């Protein structure tokens, strides 16, 4: 059977593998070197999530649209390990064993064994969180190092990004990757080692983001879609990443530290980077190709206060968001949950100046007599 498969053209082998479940593809790749290369090329689209508990994984995947409710078992514990859509598109959920904190001294006969760092468990919640993030990224980096060159679409759900994962992305997914989503916001997790309030803010800033776009010889440069949720990327790091991907058409930022005036003014062309004089010579803004821009739960995007926005003249009614004018190809713009921006201010600016087909307002002011809709299934 192996000789028959090896005699087939590579295109036929990849087509056959696209119908197999994930476990069978992995088993096929372990048979020989030729099949190992074939099974790597087969994996084109991957969505990977690493969590402490299975319930965390289920809710996160449901919220992200990775799975549907009818894919779950009758019992919550019968959740999917791997789900496959049409073709070589796989969703993999990994539940990392939950390590309990050591509150009591171990028994005498186990103390010598506990001196080994592999068996030690930190009692500080911040150190425990750091260890979990390292474990999540270790799994992710191993997957990217093996399958990165063939991946076109990649999504990763965890708690944060570290140096090891960023390095794997920059080296293995340099030109072929077209869709990248890094989702680190999971507000439903209340019983883990991260404080519930931490989900409402971006993750801590890190130099790991430098590896994705700073170096001209490494880093991702072929993206068309970029999604960052609860990312601790700084504005200048985000500028470098977007600059390295000139074909970017979809940019979705949620609870992202980089969504600040420094980045947005550059994106819309209202401010130029003096270190890149060639950008000043262009008539179009760096974000001119963007068709979708979502800024959700980002509260520091205004360039100046708009307390008296009702008194703004019509020709400058978008004062504070002038950078939007430079995004001439925008078809969808979202300010969802940006609580510092009044919805009527956005409505007026879009009606008179921007004229973007689809705009999501920050929030709605409900009056006292506004009816509340209730799902009939809960009545």
From TrEMBL:
The name this protein goes by in its record: F-box domain-containing protein
InterPro entries to which the protein is assigned, alphabetical: F-box-like_dom_sf, F-box_dom, LRR_dom_sf
Pfam families: F-box-like
F-box domain mapped to chain residues: 2-33
């Amino acid at each position: 059977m192996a000789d028959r498969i090896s005699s087939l053209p590579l295109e036929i082998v990849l087509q056959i593998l696209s119908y197999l479940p994930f476990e069978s593809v992995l088993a096929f790749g372990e048979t020989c070197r030729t099949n190992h290369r074939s099974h790597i090329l087969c994996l084109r689209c991957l969505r990977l999530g690493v969590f402490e508990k299975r319930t965390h994984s289920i809710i996160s995947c449901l919220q992200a649209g990775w799975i549907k409710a009818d894919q779950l078992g009758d019992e919550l514990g019968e959740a999917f390990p791997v789900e496959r859509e049409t073709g070589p598109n796989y969703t993999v959920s990994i539940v990392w064993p939950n390590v309990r904190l050591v509150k009591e001294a171990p028994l005498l006969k186990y103390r010598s064994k506990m001196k080994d760092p592999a068996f030690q468990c930190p009692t500080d919640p911040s150190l425990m969180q750091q260890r979990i993030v390292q474990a999540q990224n270790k799994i992710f980096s191993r997957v990217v190092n093996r399958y990165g060159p063939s991946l076109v679409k990649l999504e990763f759900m965890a708690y944060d990004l570290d140096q090891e994962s960023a390095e794997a992305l920059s080296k293995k997914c340099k030109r072929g990757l077209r869709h990248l989503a890094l989702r680190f916001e999971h507000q439903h997790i209340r019983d883990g080692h991260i404080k519930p309030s931490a989900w409402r803010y971006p993750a801590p800033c890190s130099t790991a983001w430098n590896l994705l776009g700073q170096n001209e010889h490494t880093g991702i440069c072929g993206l068309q879609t970029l999604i960052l949720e609860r990312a601790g990327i700084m504005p200048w790091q985000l500028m470098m990443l977007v600059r390295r991907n000139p074909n970017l058409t979809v940019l979705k930022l949620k609870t992202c530290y980089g969504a600040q005036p420094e980045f947005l003014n550059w994106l819309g062309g209202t401010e130029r980077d003096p270190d890149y004089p060639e950008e000043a010579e262009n008539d179009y803004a760096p974000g001119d190709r963007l068709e979708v821009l979502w800024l959700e739960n980002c509260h520091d995007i205004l360039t100046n206060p708009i307390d008296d926005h009702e008194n703004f003249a019509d020709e400058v009614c978008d004062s504070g968001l002038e950078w939007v004018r430079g995004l001439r190809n925008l078809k969808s713009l979202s300010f969802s949950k940006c609580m510092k921006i009044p919805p009527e201010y956005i409505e007026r600016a879009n009606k008179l100046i921007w004229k973007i087909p689809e705009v999501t307002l920050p929030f709605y002011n409900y009056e006292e007599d506004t009816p509340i809709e209730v799902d009939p299934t809960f009545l």
